[in-house]
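Intended use. Records like the one below are meant for learning the mapping from a protein sequence to its folded structure. Do not use them to infer anything beyond what is encoded.
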Amino acid sequence: MARERLAIDVGGTFVDFVALDEDSGDVRIEKSPSLGSIEARFFEGIDRLALDLTAVKTIIHGSTMVINTIVQEKGARVGLITTRGFRDVLELGRGNREEIYNLFYQPPAPLVERYLRLEVSERLDARGEVVRPLDEGEARAAIRQLKAAGVEGIAVVFLHSYLNPQHENRMRDLVEEECPDIAVTVSSEICREWREFERTSTTVLNAYAKPKLARYLAALKSELARRRFGGALSIMQSSGGITSLPAASEGPIRTIASGPAGGVIGAAALGRQLAVSNLVAADVGGTTFDVALISDGKPLEQTEHRINRRPVLQPTIDIVSIGAGGGSVAWLDAAGGLNIGPRSVEADPGPACFDLGGDEATVTDAQLLLGYLDPDYYLGERMRLSRKRAEAAIQERVANPLGLSALDAAAGIVHLANMNMAYAIRNITIERGHDPRDFALVCYGGGGGLFAGFLLNELGAASAIIPQNPATFSAWGLLNADYREDTIRTYLKPFADLTAGDLRAELAKLEAEVRGRFAANGIVPDETALELHAAMRYFGQEHTVKVPVLDGDLGADLLALRRRFDDYHEQAYSLKLPDSAAEIVNLQVSILGITAKPALKRIDGDDGNDSLKCRRDITVRGFGGGMSVNVHDRGKLGPVRSIEGPAIVEEWTSTILILPDQSAQVDDYGHLIIKRRAP
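Structure written out for the chain above:
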């Protein structure tokens, strides 16, 4: 019986499936629209693949459920219990106006209404020492009050608890005694960092999403057990590592970027196998365009980011997302300017060309009108697209108001989407000290191949790589993820007062904690890897720079670590101050439980002369308008085959456009590598 591993990635438009036969290396893919119950779609794809779950040893699952819950504000009714005097931290925030030129700016409303934010008497000082013990009578009264208000979750955030969780742990015990059916989240188990507003926001968001994700994962576990699945169900985290189902159920905030993270990990794995260390991972889905930077073989990370304008303190792959997917709506603002997204028609009703009731003009409608998509060969002939409805939507919504033809309007829609995507890539390259010309693009997702050529030209990148099965590449990336646990602790200390012994002792303490978490979650990897980082800054600064701590740094002195901080600061801000005092703010310990990685399989085939399917008329802005191009079947392209642009390459889940000034070559593994031709 074949041994299989299965990856399932839930996106806004489709659920993607990749089944890997570990013995032969064969990969099978499947897609299912993200309609109705996601649990039903989860098992629908398994049934289409005809998988015997008793032979599947691992299922790795990435999902957009948590981020969608937060962005759409459809989470649980949550109560907050905090230190007396700090009831309004969540509402006051930083007290600043983020959009400084917007006179009408309003911060996002707190997810916990004020009458559900309660205070209890307790106090720790800035060293974590008890100033006033927890008043358990007040604590029980607050819990009962929230229970009577009908909350599904309770968040507990006490002042300075990142240094000493004693009071929060007791509060959690009291909640479980008083109302065991209410999910409780304590900040010291979610983030052990300073900054009261950010820590409170993170804890509340975890409590807000926890009941919904826990119910979803419990339903999956129950049905998998009924189908006699005896393997491990692992969940993708925002950090790019996977974790156990119980850990994800308790800490859903760790899975906010679960879906896009899989693609970035896949791009990094692809780069290692192709010996390309600097990459831009560009995922074009139905709803968003997600882009991340991979430098020297590793994805860049951040420890703080914002979701729907709300701060989150969690290790996360540094992913920039914009509303520029295939389902993004083209619309005109009050001044008559054309805009793309961020609103999307999603899977239901979908673009107008899907003929499912949608009547808004989208990027996919424009691509169909320009000839890039075959209306009779969409999703492997599972769907037929209506050119008539696409044209009507673009004519009514965009072309007529602007006095353009439908074709010119469609070209404008695609061009604007391209520019939005190029700006997002510049945001993570040029604005962070990197030259996009030093990077190769890895374009994937259902629409990645249609934008790759445009982005290659606009950014001057080295090349654009379209991997095999790009529409399910994020799911394939899940199969390359390692188990991962992280801890970040505030450790504020002037660098001049720090000794190597102090640093070794603190890091060893954090390492023991993280390894204990692996054991508590039932994860026993054969091999582990340890990663250490310090968040550092110059005195007088607000923000920090994340610097790796290497074995050599922990010797007799810390000069190498200090020099590395100066170099990292210079790369990020074009400035270093080696003679200025510096300090450490946070320490981070990450442990990876190494998993087996799927090997790339070489493709068979001849020179691919039989790959030509037909010729098609298309319109390409900037290249003289209309032209007739060859359309190739990607499945029949043999290795080392070169295709001169303009051309189209089709496979059942995606389409690739090669521009007139480009050529593409198929490597030994079936990846299509697009480059600009020399003038």
